[in-house]
Amino acid sequence: MGLPAAVVWDSALLGYDLGGEHPLNPIRLELTVRLASALGVLDGVELLVPESAPEEEIRRIHDAAYIAAVREAPMAGWDVGHGLGTTDNPIFDRMHEASAMVVGSSLMAARQIASGATKRAVSIAGGLHHAMRSRAAGFCVYNDTAVAISWLLDHGFERIAYVDTDVHHGDGVQAAFYDDPRVLTISLHQNPLTLFPGTGFADEIGSDGAEGTSVNVALPPLTDDRAWFRAFHAVVPSLLNAFQPQLLVSQCGVDTHDEDPLASLSLSVDGHRRIYQTVRDLAERYAGGRWLAAGGGGYQLIRVVPRSWTHLIATMLDRDVDPSTPLPREWTDLIERIAPTAELPATMGEGRGTDHEPWDGTVELAVDRSIRDTRHAVFPLHGLDPADPRD
Question: Which residues form the Histone deacetylase domain (predicted)?
């Protein structure tokens, strides 16, 4: 019997490098693959090597003029507009080629599922969810996840659910499908009054016949694992049950961690592991087991991202790693060589509890206001009772 998931990876994806001290350092990807390999998670797994996405596929989501600007930016210098050449999105050599390779990675994952070769596929280099039709934003040049969803809609899928668990609102994917009733986008993120990109309020619900298919849960700063799962379970399963997707796509940013330098939620690596296991269960229950996962944000490059995304890959492969598993010496030796002052964790978890009290319809905790606002905004549009915790 074949493996339950395809893993898309090649070192060419490290070319998406915004340079200097930019927080989106591609070393986080290399360290993830090295850790997964050292733990045996990738034993017997043939990593699928992506090809650069052709321009006609990128044009599913992005304007031709914008793509031309991305191509020309390294020669033109900093003044090219379209959000390029900013602190968030500096111009770098071979920017189009590197960005198109990320798109190609998520497209390959999509094709594996659409062809029936596998029901699950993971593109850890993907998840660049802020890129808009004609501009770069939030470290994202091309929106690989939106391109993959668009491709899937043209290749046998009529209802796709997208669940974004990054600390930042999945604004680019929401914008791409805001008026498309075939795509349900759900984003759980830090309150946009306190964090980039400043969107993702509960009243952003979709338009033009797609009302109710954009869903936003704006979480208060310092939300921890237990509160996060209270909100997730009060919103997501009911909507998936009502929408009945044929495929679940998830953006698995890990900048929700309490050590992340760019945001203020308080999740743990143990919480991230449970998120992936929960999404896997939901895909089995509501989407015939079909699940495409992409990476996303995450800026604690050594202590958090490699452990969390190793758990993601392991979960996709049904090779779940116990949080008490010690970090392998092969990997810690590598870190000691490249970052000798880094303080390394001892195990694949943090010993944090992630059990939650289910939402009971009250508004007693800070996160309950987020639950109430989201449910009241979208549940009636799906025939659900926003005040009934059984829905």
Answer: 22-315
